[in-house]
Design brief:
Elongation Factor Tu (Ef-tu), domain 3; 2 domains; six-stranded antiparallel barrel; about 240 residues; alpha+beta; single chain
Length: about 240
């Protein structure tokens, strides 16, 4: 199947997809509480001439949100309680900057990896140091997410597609090149800061395939071993 055909098939699932390649950084201009939910309005001048319509999805710091109002270069989104409970959006204040990416089109280059915009959890930056011309960042994951992160695998941090260098228990580290450090909000992340994490989709579906209804429960989930793979016909 061609790349375009593959992406068209993705769109027919009624799920918008992203790549983790940030297009611009927006600025929060309003954060209004409304009946327990939150309406966020952000400013993104770079999106003014792009074909953004009501109902479209934009990944905001890695969270897939639906455009509910457009005023020139300002876009508004309603954020549900579910999203507020699993993200840092409730802490966003006017003036805060967020990474933005429009949803994939059938002709889009897949420059990062497939990203759903559904945040899996919150990680904390525990160490930051220069590594030649790049920056090495070490994050601490919630214990329940560590099984989805693998050395040289993909991970999304505040909407940015990155490659994992190494993993030790619930710590992992990544390198951020100068360009990414400058054109995303990662340059503002300091030790102690929290970020949105989305694990690789493949890891999620592999767990579901192997563990069935036990996937994601944390109970009696089989360990992934050579004997297990052989038993289930993978080797």
């Amino acid at each position: 199947m061609s790349k375009a055909g593959f992406l068209l098939n993705l769109k027919t699932t009624d799920k918008y997809m992203f790549t983790g390649i940030i297009e611009t950084v927006g600025r929060i201009v309003k954060a209004e509480r409304n009946g327990g939910d939150l309406r966020i309005t952000l400013e993104a001048p770079e999106f003014h001439d792009k074909a953004v319509a009501l109902g479209d999805s934009i990944a905001c710091d890695g969270v897939c949100l639906t455009v509910v109002d457009i005023q020139s270069n300002q876009f508004s989104f309603d954020v549900s309680i579910e999203s507020l409970n699993h993200s840092l959006i409730g802490d966003w204040q006017p003036g805060a900057k967020v990474n933005l990416e429009l949803a994939l089109l059938p002709t889009t280059r897949l420059g990062g990896h497939l990203v759903s915009g559904h945040v899996d959890g919150i990680a904390t930056l525990v160490d930051l140091k220069e590594d030649a011309r790049s920056w090495r960042m070490v994050f601490e994951l919630p214990q329940e997410l560590k099984k989805y992160v693998a050395k040289k695998g993909s991970i999304t941090i505040n909407g940015v597609s990155l490659t994992v260098n190494s993993v030790e228990d619930n710590l992992f580290d990544i390198n951020v090149i100068p360009h990414t450090f400058e054109v995303t909000t990662l340059g503002q992340v300091k030790p102690g800061s929290q970020v949105h994490i989305e694990v690789d989709l493949i890891a999620r579906y592999l767990e579901r395939l192997l563990a069935g209804d036990r996937s994601g429960t944390g109970e009696n989930t089989p360990s992934l071993s050579k004997s297990f793979l052989t038993e289930h016909g993978f080797t």
